[in-house]
């Protein structure tokens, strides 16, 4: 199995007093595989039930609310016995709210280690959910305070480097350079830029990364990524129902908008079809939502949605494949700024989220012009403006101009050069791949103050 950082989080969970655990994330990021590997590494017996495929298990949760009765039923279904060394895995709980609800019952009981996995977690407010799961005029109540929550995403760049055999000491050295704002060795810089280009094309989905590792050629992953994309319609219509067409339309709008000069989506939040479609992108984990703040110095370190927001795709390799063969060729030739920089901006958003950093954006019309920052966020307790220098033509005010209007605490530019500090304008420059180590950009003195919003 490819090494995942979240394995340490599961070990920490198991080693202390804990509640039942919910792991959510987009389809195909390896949630079930991670739990299986965790059980193996801990020497635990795994009792695994796929709720979405097992009608008998769904009926069990509908009719029983006591942990002992549920465990007895799961033993009958699986033919396994549960003891103190058993880890119970409830897979795909989004398809049975009562199974999700059982996490509270198991937490209150305290005798069983239970992990649930699923996608579309949080879609309880959608009209489609109400259609599917309303019972006697009421929806099952989810007790969020009785469960712990982790979000698994596709592999990040550092995990992919480990998978290719790059020593952890190398990535630690990169982190030190970032933290100290000191240049990276030129040869290492070139190697990392090449590997980052491969990562942009391959993406972080485990099946795609696994295929890449065979010959280290991103082109080998095309058919794998095609299969992932071909599953979007079934997923959209399965969970968005009659709004499935709107969900796929919103996906197309997002991809098209990212190639335009103004990359903000002007959504009518009173349009039910649009909001249901965007809701599928959000809850499926396919979209990364960057709310547009009214001032770059007024940032909320949480995901929020506003009428004018940016939406990126959670996996840049998937986006590259959706853009087609010309984009694939450009990336293979090392032109990372293809599609007017859309992929570069997307990969920075992807890296931020995988580092546990919540991206927002800033765009404001000023007279006949416009001020714009690709991203704004909070690093430590410092409001930070971020620009992705992809070489595209901009009609908007540059990052250093905005800093003269608004009192920004920190300014960062990602480009194709080495780490540098522009003292006159107080701007830090980092190569694109350093976004994958953005948690190291938090000042050392602020480490204890920083609480990433995932």
Secondary structure layout plus pairing:
Elements (H helix, E strand, L loop, with lengths): L5 H9 L5 E5 L6 H12 L2 E6 L4 H9 L3 H12 L7 E6 L5 H13 L3 E6 L8 H7 L13 E5 L5 H7 L4 H13 L5 H17 L3 H10 L6 H9 L1 H9 L3 H14 L7 E2 L5 H12 L3 E5 L16 E6 L2 H8 L1 H8 L9 H13 L5 E7 L2 E11 L2 E7 L10 H7 L4 E6 L4 E3 L4 E5 L23
Parallel strand pairs: 1-4, 1-5, 2-3, 3-4, 11-12, 12-14
Antiparallel strand pairs: 6-8, 7-8, 9-10, 10-11, 13-14
Helix pairs in contact: 1-2, 3-4, 9-15, 11-15, 12-13, 13-14
Q: Count the beta strands.
A: 14
Fraction of residues in H or I helices: 40-55%
Percent strand:
15-25%
Largest sheet, spatial ordering of strands:
9-10-11-12-14-13
- Inertia-based shape: globular
Low-pLDDT stretches are 448-454
Mean pLDDT: 87
Helix/strand/pairing category: alpha/beta
User: Main beta sheet, described?
Assistant: 6 strands, mixed
Radius of gyration: 23 Å
Terminal-residue CA separation: 24 Å
Counted by DSSP, the helix tally is 18
Total domain units: 2
Account of the 3D structure:
This protein is an alpha/beta fold. The chain folds into two domains: 6-151, Rossmann fold, CATH 3.40.50.300; 194-449, no CATH class. Helices cover 42% and strands 18% of the residues. It has 18 helices and 14 strands. It has helices at residues 6-14, 31-42, 55-63, 67-78, 97-109, 127-133, 157-163, 168-180, 186-202, 206-215, 222-230, 232-240, 244-257, 272-283, 316-323, 325-332, 342-354, 399-405; strands spanning 20-24, 45-50, 86-91, 113-118, 147-151, 265-266, 287-291, 308-313, 360-366, 369-379, 382-388, 410-415, 420-422, 427-431. The strands form three sheets. Strands 9-10-11-12-14-13 form a six-stranded mixed sheet, sandwiched between helices. Strand 3, helix 5 (97-109) and strand 4 form a beta-alpha-beta unit. Helix 9 crosses helix 15, helix 11 (222-230) crosses helix 15 (316-323) and helix 12 (232-240) crosses helix 13. The chain is globular. The model is unreliable at 448-454 (pLDDT under 50).
């Amino acid at each position: 199995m490819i090494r995942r950082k979240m394995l340490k989080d599961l070990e920490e969970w198991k080693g202390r007093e804990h509640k039942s655990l919910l792991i959510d994330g987009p389809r195909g990021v390896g949630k079930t595989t991670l739990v299986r590997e965790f059980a193996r590494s801990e020497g635990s017996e795994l009792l695994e039930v796929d709720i979405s495929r097992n009608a008998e298990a769904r009926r069990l949760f509908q009719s029983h609310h006591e942990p002992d009765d549920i465990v007895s039923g799961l033993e009958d279904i699986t033919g396994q016995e549960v003891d103190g060394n058993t880890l119970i895995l409830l897979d795909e709980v989004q398809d049975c709210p009562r199974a999700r609800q059982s996490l509270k019952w198991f937490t209150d009981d305290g005798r069983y280690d239970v992990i649930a996995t699923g996608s579309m977690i949080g879609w309880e407010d959608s009209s489609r959910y109400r259609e599917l799961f309303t019972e006697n005029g009421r929806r099952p109540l989810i007790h969020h305070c009785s469960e712990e929550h982790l979000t698994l995403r596709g592999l990040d760049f550092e995990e992919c480097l480990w998978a290719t055999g790059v020593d952890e000491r190398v990535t630690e050295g990169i982190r030190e350079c970032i933290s100290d704002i000191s240049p990276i060795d030129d040869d290492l810089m070139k190697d990392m830029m090449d590997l980052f280009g491969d990562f942009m094309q391959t993406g972080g989905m485990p099946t795609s990364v696994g295929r890449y590792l065979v010959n280290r050629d991103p082109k080998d992953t095309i058919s794998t990524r095609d299969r992932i994309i071909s599953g979007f319609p079934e997923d959209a219509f399965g969970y968005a129902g009659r709004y499935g067409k709107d969900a796929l339309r919103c996906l197309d709008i997002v991809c098209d908008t990212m190639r335009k000069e103004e990359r903000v989506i002007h959504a009518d939040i009173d349009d039910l079809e649009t909001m249901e479609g965007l809701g599928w992108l959000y809850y499926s984990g396919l979209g990364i939502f960057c709310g547009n703040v009214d001032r770059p110095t007024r940032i909320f370190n949480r995901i929020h949605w506003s009428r004018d927001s940016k939406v990126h795709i959670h996996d840049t390799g998937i986006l590259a494949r959706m853009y087609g063969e010309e984009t694939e060729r450009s990336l293979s030739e090392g032109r990372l700024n293809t599609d007017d920089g859309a992929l570069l901006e997307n990969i920075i958003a992807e890296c931020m989220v995988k580092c546990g950093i919540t991206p927002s954006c800033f765009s404001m019309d000023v007279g006949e012009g416009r001020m714009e920052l690709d991203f704004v966020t909070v690093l430590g307790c410092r409001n930070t403006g971020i620009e992705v220098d992809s070489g595209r033509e901009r009609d908007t005010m540059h990052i250093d101009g905005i800093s003269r209007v608004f009192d920004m605490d920190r300014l960062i530019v990602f480009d194709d050069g080495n780490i540098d500090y522009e003292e006159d304008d107080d701007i830090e420059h980092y190569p694109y791949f350093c976004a994958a180590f953005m948690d190291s950009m938090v000042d050392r003195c602020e480490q204890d103050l920083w609480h990433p919003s995932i």
